[in-house]
Structure formats: structure tokens, C-alpha cells
Amino acid sequence: MPSLRNIFSQRHRFVHIFVKSMLVLPVPVLSDNYAYVLVDEDSKEGVVVDPVEPHKVLPVIGQKGITLNGVLTTHHHHDHAGGNTKLLQEKPNVTVWGGDDRIPQLTHRVKDQEVFRIGRLEVTALYTVCHTRGSVSYYVVDPSTNDKAVFTGDTLFIGGCGRFFEGDAKQMYNSLHNVLGRLPKDTKVYCGHEYTKSNLRFAAHVEPNNSVIKDKLAWCETHECTVPSTIGDEFEYNPFLRLSSPEIRKAVGLDAQADPIEVLARLRAMKDNFK
What we know:
By secondary structure, this protein is α/β, with parallel strands linked by helices. The protein has a single domain (20-272), classed as Metallo-beta-lactamase, Chain A (4-Layer Sandwich), CATH 3.60.15.10. The protein has helices spanning 4-18, 54-64, 78-81, 84-90, 169-179, 196-206, 211-220, 231-237, 246-251, 260-272; strands at residues 22-29, 33-40, 45-49, 67-72, 95-98, 108-109, 115-118, 121-127, 136-142, 147-153, 156-157, 160-161, 188-191, 229-230. Strands 1-2-3-4-5-6 form a six-stranded mixed β-sheet, with helices on one face. Strands 7-8-9-10-13-14 form a six-stranded mixed β-sheet. A hairpin with a 2-residue loop joins strand 11 (156-157) and strand 12. Helix 6 (196-206) packs antiparallel against helix 7 (211-220). Its EC number is 3.1.2.6. This is hydroxyacylglutathione hydrolase. Keywords: Hydrolase, Metal-binding, Zinc. Its cofactor is Zn(2+).
């Protein structure tokens, strides 16, 4: 008859094997972009997010033994969607999700708040328009562990936000504050570019007395890859989520009664010209 210690050990090993979590693998691509491999470790089913350089992403999939289900495309710009055609030449018959008909090889145009699954992972497509009129962020929840992640493309960066190429400040405010900003604070943020140092330098310029920004900048000096942050973190140091800060309002020449959308508009204009 096995001892209680052996029974406990066997049960512990079983639980350790059974309870696996969502896995996110950042893949640096081009000069400063990120693609991501998103995996349900239990089923080994996965997708790639914005795989602009398939020759860098596909080896990761092969090494991990992942069954590729498809591509999550955040928006149509070439540095995000430009690898779709080549990837499908290597991996035909996979789904390409996105919110814009300009996305190469698009097979499924998602609706806002549409939910689908990758293995057991629950993915919700969130329209976060402004950078482009078809920008989508993908919010992912692992129901077994309650791990949460969001892939934000060029809408929300660590310490910053995207340019208003096809939208305006009202749309970006909605995307940042009413959509992404309302996600759970522990949601991990995986953005489309490694812009963190330059974003935080601007943040320190408009809010010089924010010690959290200074600490994060110092942290960046020893970390080449700065993803992920969290939604909660962003409210501590991202000026585009801190529009009520007296220092930021002073920096853009507005008072406490000013419309936060106007604060955001002026802040983005300042960032566009910041060196």
C-alpha cells in the first residue's frame, strides 16, 4: 500500500501537469516591432499576432510543437500585416482575424466584442479605432488560471499611445479610457512596438514630479524587452491615461475644468513634435 507521502506526491504531480497556463512569447521583428506567439499550453493550440516576419515566428512555433490555428491582426499597416501572405504560403488554411478589409489574406472580419476560442483561451475582439479606422485589440482570458492579456497593436503602448492617423482625439479617448482602460487592472499589455524609453522620456517631460515614471525609466535601462506592462501600471505612468494630472494639464496649457479629450489632443500633438 503506498504511503500518504507518495499519494500526495502523485496527486501534486498530476495537478502540476494538468493546470497549465496561457503562454505568450514575444518575438522581436523588424527594427522595433513585436510579433507574439499566443499558446494554450494545455492543448498546444496557438495563434500568432502580427507576424510581419514569418521566418522569425515560424521557428518558435515549430520548436514549441504548437498547432497553429491562425493569425490575429491588429491593423492593416505593413509593419503588422505585411507578413500574412508569406505566412499562409507556409501554413495554408489557417484563419486570419482582423477588423479591416485592407488586411492581407483576411478570412474573418471580426465584430466588436466578438468572442472566439483558441483551445480553451477565450479571445474577445475589441474595436480600438483611431490609429486606423479598423484597429482591433485582442483581449484574452485563460478561464483555468484567470490569466489575462491584451494585444493592443499601435493603440496603447507602454507609456504612450499611437498616432491619430485615421481618427481623432475623441476616438482615441474612447479606445484608451472606455475600452482598454476598463479592462481588469492585472491584464498584461502586449503592444506592437518597443517604444517604451522614448514614451517615458516624454512622460517625464510633461509630469516631471511623477516618481513612478522615473523608476520605470531606470528599470528600462536594464531591460531590452519591456513588455508586458499591465493596465494598472499604465494608469501610473502613461500620460495618455493620466489626463486629470495637474502637471500634465499645465504642460498642455489647460486648467482643471478642461475637457479631457482636448487634453489628450494637445498631449498627442506635443508628443508628435517631442525630441
